[in-house]
Amino acid sequence: MSAPTRGLLAAVCLLAPQLCSARLDPQAASMASDYFRHRNAHTVVTYTCSEDDSSRLAHLLLARHRVWLMLSPDPEHIPYNSYIFLDYSCEQNQILLTQCAKAEMMNTSRRWLVVSTQEPDERLQVRVDSDVTWAAWAGGGGAVLWGLVRLHPGWPLQRWPVGRWAPSAGLHYDNTRLQWVAKKNLHRLALGAALPIVDTPLDNLSERLKNVNDRQLDTMARFGWSLSTTLAELLNFSIILYRVRNFGSLINDYEMDGAVALIHNGTVEFGAAGFIMTTRRMDFMDYTGPGRLWAPEIMFRHPKSASVLTTIFKPYTAELWVSSGGLFVLILVVSRIFCWVEHEVTGTVDEIDNSWNSTFLLVSSAIGQQGVSRSSEWLSWRMLLFVSFLCTNLLDTHYAAGIVTSLLMPPPRTINNKKDLADSSLGFGLENVSYTYQFFVKSDDPVDRALCSRKLYPPGGRPNFFSAEVGVRKMASQPFAFHAEDVRVGPLIDRFFSDDDKCALVFIPLLTPVATYHTVRKNSPVKELFNFGLRMMWERGHVQYLRKRWYLTRVRCLSETEYASVDLVPMSPAFMLLGCAFLLSGLLLLIEVRQYRRSQIEVVPVVANLSSENLTKKLGNSQTGQQKVHFSSTTQIKLLPSLDKGIYWDQFEPSK
Questions:
Q1: Which range scores top for mean pLDDT: 234-243, 273-282, 413-422?
Q2: CB 3.0 to 4.6 Å from 432: which of 28, 380, 465, 524, for a disulfide?
């Protein structure tokens, strides 16, 4: 090209730059529109080679479906969960794509569609979590869509076919093989993992962490290691273990130590143990799927409740007891009035039935549902009897149901939280571990302060920090509450506690239960992959199996879940009532005997040839006094010829 020609071309490009810029093929714009509609895109960012291409593409996208558009923004302002269109035919967009790849902006939060007539650059730093679709454009003949992935920065770039587009057939897109084959198999990629280990010996560490017999040593580390090795088998990667002393504490506002420091500076890719999520730690690392619910608890043998002795009275409230007593008193009075009326009107009721004793037996029979000893043809009597039995039957049914319910329910508890424990007479101690010190030192809760001052640091005594064995021994021998890791105290409880004491154990929370999570470094390419793997392990039951393997379950108490025999203590009021009834009946018996002897009437039986002399001999000197003598009717007839006026005859009229 001659110099004048080049000069003319430069002048034209200066006056009309859109004529000299690479123009986006209209078919490529249609393909991009079909792609975003298929992916259900809501926010689209476009990078074209000219303003004219950008305008035409924007008009096409807005005309076909509703999207939010951003035209060639600064890469730092690209929003999350957006779709990005990039025309790779100009040098400025090629540089832009390379810079975004180096800034690790090709992840699951930004999905790229790159349109080019060239093959992708082998040096392009895509990642295992990248969502980059490379549309190899062939002019009017359509395009072939490739999914790009690189498992490791030093490994070659992989291209997986994900679809094609043609003007007549439209878009065919399927990235199943890319998502489930290419990205779920890391091909034994080595990833570093930080694991806090304190008590376990370091020789042959990988095998020691699998030994279930030593699960009381670094339990959280062993559970996390088993979870990580299972995840490694699922995703096909290998682990390089880095042992640290602690999980990570804050050194200053910009630095942490322990496992968090190794994850933050990129020495390791993830943390193998479960980390509690805090706002400060979120500045240094990212969290993935959950591992275990950490719920530290205080355990103790609950003291016997005084209300056990009143179990027999629990089915009824005080108001119902008083109402029932008043009802039976009313039945007693009405029954007595009825017997008196029937005796006065008909005269068929004898003196025995027409008495308070007979009426009391009627009420007692109604309460015991045993029937009555007398009958009556009066309808009013039968109605009274029916209502009495019906009422007592309903009361008895509800009472029996209440008794059964009280026996099936767990024993009553008066200590249900830390406040109740602080106000109780129980002692309190903690296992001698670091987080218990930090909790009570930093806590501003008034309940924690009260528990600390009253129980943990008693006035004039040593702080109640003990080893797990000493704490369990104190729980077994005295009223004492203790906190330690459940995996540590489980074997000790089996050794020192009886079955009844195990059933009496009560657990209340020391801290609010929190979930623990696996962690990865900030913007890690394996974050979404770990989320997928951990959720799959949850669905398949691996996490539940590992929990049962490394953490002991609570003692299963028979009395709270299945049939249990009734104890003597809850039924002791019934025996007390029976004993009181014996004493009362004995006292009444003595009173009745004394009363009978004071009003005794001697009955003279029928005696043959009874004369006045024989009668005088029989009665002795008492015949001259006012002694009452009750003869049978036969005896009275025999004595008629020999009546002695010196004797007072009762129930006999001489004139007859």
A1: 234-243
A2: 465
Token pair of 379 as six digits? 């309808």
CATH architecture for residues 186-295+514-578 = 3-Layer(aba) Sandwich (3.40)
The residue with greater pLDDT, 119 or 333, is: 119
Helix, strand, or coil here: 556? coil
How far is 457 from 489, CA to CA, in rounded Å?
A: 23
Strands 427-431 and 465-466 turn out to be: parallel
Burial of 244 (0-12, 13-18, 19+ CB in 10 A): buried
Q: Is a pLDDT exceeding 50 seen at residue 10?
A: no
Cα end-to-end span (Å), the chain: 173
The number of CA neighbours under 13 Å toward the Cβ of 446 is 2
347 exposure class (CB count in 10 Å sphere: 0-12, 13-18, 19+): exposed
- List phi, psi (to 5°) of 425: -90, 0
Cβ-based neighbours of 136, under 8 Å, separated by 6 or more: 116, 117, 119, 143, 144, 145, 146
Q: Is domain 20-182 in CATH 3.40.50.300, yes or no?
A: no
Cβ burial of 349 (10 Å; 0-12, 13-18, 19+) is: buried
Structure tokens at 590: 């003595």
Output b/e per residue, 138-166; b: 16+ Cβ within 10 A.
eeeebbebbbbbbbeeeeeebbbebbbbe
pTM, rounded to two decimals:
0.65
State mean pLDDT over 276-280. 86
Residue 202's Cα: distance from chain center in Å? 37
pLDDT of residue 350: 57
Q: What secondary structure, in 3-state letters, does 187-207 show?
A: CCEEEEEEEECCCCCCCCHHH
In terms of Cβ atoms closer than 10 Å to its own Cβ (0-12, 13-18, 19+), residue 210 is exposed
Quickly list H helices, 292-410. Answer: 318-345, 356-368, 379-408
* pLDDT (tens digit per residue) in 185-230: 898 999 999 999 988 888 888 888 888 888 778 888 888 899 999 9
Coil, strand or helix: which one is 285? strand
201 neighbors 227 (Cβ within 8 angstroms):
no
